[in-house]
Amino acid sequence: MKPRISLFAEQEREDRRAKLGDPLVGLAEHVDFEALAGSIDAAAPRPSRAKGGRPPYPTVLMIKILVLQQLYNLADDALEYQLLDRRSFLRFLDLTESSSIPDAKTIWLFRDRLAQAGVGNQVFEQVQQQLLSQGYLARCGQIVDASLVQAPIQRNKREEAETVKEGTMPLGWKPHKRAQKDVDAKWTKKHGKNHFGYKLHASVDKRCKLIRKIAITHAAVADTTVFEELLDLSNTSRDVYADRGYPSIEREARLKQAGWRVHIQRRGHATKGISETQKRRNRAIAIPRARVEHVFGALAQMGGKLVRCLGIVRTTFVLQLKAASYNLKRLVFLKERGLAPF
């Protein structure tokens, strides 16, 4: 069919986009980005202009850009192009009439300044406050799990690799080479496959599938190591679910003594399997526990299975921002689907 020429083509496309639904419209409506920017400026004040120079972009604009980057899994250069080209992004940022668009370097510098200042936790907690203020409390129990996050693999010589394992850098590495080496990521093995990078540990509430607490470690850290610190005491239920990677007689005894209702799957051993009763119990736990896999699946769609940055400091900030952005996206979904907070 021959394309139809119309003087109102732009408006007609706009109407079609409105019918399909723009998730960024929901973000702009339901999220208080000014409060988010305020928490960032309080934790990491903007650079002084005493020496002159171009004034920095507003923090509220830059944090919106970082949220877009996490939601759509864009590298800095790709993000700059999309900011210049994508009308929905410009509307979300209130830049439709502006020719001043942050470039890739500006975005990198802003993100790195926040990472070095360690404000990722403040961002995550500010999002938690907004969830609570809109009535989305942690309810019906929590599910604890972890997911591997791939980092750029380092090609080091054997001697260099041994030095890195000891927690130091080889003396022969010059500053520019050190800046391109990740000495914090570690190798681990899962299901017979080797993985290099980090691990995102999370506690997710069972009702709304919102991430309530997180911890970031290198990949070799055992999941059980951070189990207790992930427990969300604000959840209205004392039920806690986890897979067979977390069982421990001592842990379960401590949790039960503290008032928790423990639902951790049982694991068999090489010489002895689990009983039929334990198998039935595992299947019963698997149904609610599967909800955490939905969360990690959504994070994977947002690029949460890999990081482009180097080092635990930058990785921690990016994954905290990724989890916060997921929660914002989930908040919009809950609001627009009419799922009542209580």
From TrEMBL:
GO biological process: DNA transposition
UniProt keyword DNA-binding present: yes
GO function terms (MF aspect): DNA binding; transposase activity
A Pfam family this chain is assigned to: DUF772
Transposase IS4-like domain span: 140-328
Family classification: Belongs to the transposase 11 family.
Protein name per its UniProtKB record: IS5 family transposase
